[in-house]
Design brief:
single chain, 10 strands, about 15% strand
Length: about 300
């Protein structure tokens, strides 16, 4: 029997893998290599900056999430966060700020009956777009409006579209996309509605920010949303939601069908950001969240 040293065996595995990859497939790879290849997520994992607990300086917070394994963060805007310090810390530690979250869209809604309030909401969106550009992000997340006793669905639709259209020129100029998020605002509750809302702008500067957990409340599986949104889906985030008990739970303990979600993401060719949106905490807590994310997002 010919003896192959551990070092030689390792080199043999490497050379075999490379040869097969260059031949155009992985089916002939060693079983271990095939397994490792199949488990790759192809998604970039992020969290909301507000989830990083404590009063530590920005540099320490960014170093912390890098140490845990996160690829990026998403920040609130407008905010008091020093963007120069944030940029420096992210460059130092290799963390991306992939986008901003309009921090006043619930208070200063673009659907409000008062045009003065809508103007304030528009200013907030413009700031979120500008800040996104400053930190090298690609999207400004926006809840477009709220339907309530003072605002009908049609009014929310028309008013919010009118205000967002005013922000499109700046977004185009700065290379930032406006990402419409689906939430519990009594507005968009079906994938067809979100498709129509996005398409009515007639530009790919406006797209969808899909929350895989939020929409379970309305009965349509997340994978169905993803398939119908297709290339309109710019990014997605998630928590953990049990549609049977109608309660929030930890990531991975809800009724999200993650294997089907991953299948749908593959079908539309999505390989972008996956961002957790749960309660914040210390290193131990954020590590647990990261591990939960890895578990549900790994095939």
């Amino acid at each position: 029997m010919t003896y192959i040293s551990r070092l030689a065996r390792r080199d043999l595995l490497k050379s075999t893998a490379v040869a097969v990859l260059f031949s155009g497939g992985i089916s002939a790879l060693p079983i271990r290599v095939q397994a490792e290849e199949a488990k790759k997520s192809h998604l970039k994992l992020a969290l909301k900056y507000s989830m990083i607990g404590g009063d530590a300086p920005i540099d320490e917070k960014i170093a912390l999430i890098k140490r845990i394994g996160y690829d990026g963060v998403e920040i609130d805007s407008p905010s008091n966060l020093n963007l120069d310090d944030l940029n420096a810390a992210c460059k130092k530690h290799g963390i991306a700020v992939h986008g901003t979250i309009d921090s006043i869209h619930w208070d200063k809604t673009l659907s409000h009956p008062d045009e003065t309030v809508r103007a304030q909401g528009l200013k907030g969106l413009l700031t979120a777009i500008e800040d996104c550009h400053k930190v090298g992000g690609t999207t400004a997340l926006l809840v477009p409006g709220v339907v309530n006793k003072d605002v009908t669905y049609e009014q929310c639709y028309e008013r919010s579209q009118a205000e967002i259209k005013k922000a499109i020129p700046l977004a185009d100029k700065l290379g930032v996309k406006i990402a419409i998020e689906v939430v519990w605002n009594n507005f968009i509750t079906k994938p067809e509605q979100l498709v129509q809302y996005v398409d009515d702008f007639g530009t790919d500067t406006v797209g969808a920010y899909f929350d895989c957990s939020n929409m379970l409340k309305y009965g349509v599986p997340a994978a169905e949303w993803i398939r119908k949104l297709d290339k309109r889906m710019l990014k997605f985030d998630f928590k953990g939601y049990n549609a049977d008990t109608q309660k929030w739970v930890e990531i991975g303990q809800g009724t999200e069908d993650w294997p089907e979600v991953l299948k749908a993401l593959d079908e539309i060719g999505y390989t972008g950001w996956a961002t957790s949106e749960v309660g914040g905490g210390d290193e131990a807590h954020l590590t647990k969240v990261y591990q939960q994310m890895q578990k549900v997002l790994t095939k």
